[in-house]
Amino acid sequence: NPLNGARYLLAAHLPRQLPPDDGREVAFAGRSNAGKSSALNALTGHNRLARTSKTPGRTQQLVYFQVADGRHLVDLPGYGYAKVPQDLRSHWLDFINGYFRNRQSLAGLVVVMDIRHPLREYDRQMLAYATDRGLPAHCLLTKADKLGRGQQSQALLTVRRQLAAQYGDSVGVQLFSSESKQGVDEARAVVAGWLAL
Ligand code: GTP
Ligand code: MG
Prior knowledge:
Layout: E1 7-12, E2 24-30, H1 36-44, E3 62-68, E4 71-75, H2 86-102, E5 106-114, H3 121-132, E6 137-142, H4 149-167, E7 171-175, H5 184-194
The structure holds guanosine-5'-triphosphate and magnesium ion.
Guanosine-5'-triphosphate binds near residues 33, 59, 142, 178 and 179.
Cofactor: Mg(2+)
Keywords: Cell cycle, Cell division, GTP-binding, Magnesium, Metal-binding, Nucleotide-binding, Septation
Protein name: Probable GTP-binding protein EngB
């Protein structure tokens, strides 16, 4: 597992707290409670690398994990959580927006979506941020274990068609489950490739 060396590095609340912008990093975005932190844990093979919780909106900063020298995974704050106060929400939107616009190290975006609620408004916003800059993106339809095989395939096909229509082949999509580990190897290969590991 090329991501197994991952270690917690830092949590950034402000742009100036980000590590030097001279490496390679892959960002993980997704609605609150979609399963970002769980996906990070599954991909790195660590049970408690990223904090997971049953309380949505828990990850409130950009959390950096270092995989190797200058190679990072970034857990972005979950979006779409209604109870976050408006001023805090606009602070985050500004921060994330600026991050996507300016971050040279950013090599690719993983969008984690609950397979039962794919491609919501903010998911599309994140995909637009990445693809507008010419960055590749990859969608994980996670919690696939919650659906039967037939429904999984149906969801995958639908999302794949929508992505192809809008983004051509710059955005990939796959089934995923942090619970059953379905799709973990496939996703890990994408992330490791972007990090040039
Ligand atoms: P925030 O940091 O709050 O935005 O959430 P997150 O996107 O990091 O979600 P997290 O990984 O904390 O998971 C949220 C809840 O979903 C937890 O209760 C997890 O155990 C559960 N969960 C995550 N991934 C899966 C999965 O693949 N299958 C199932 N069944 N449950 C999952
Ligand atoms: Mg989280």
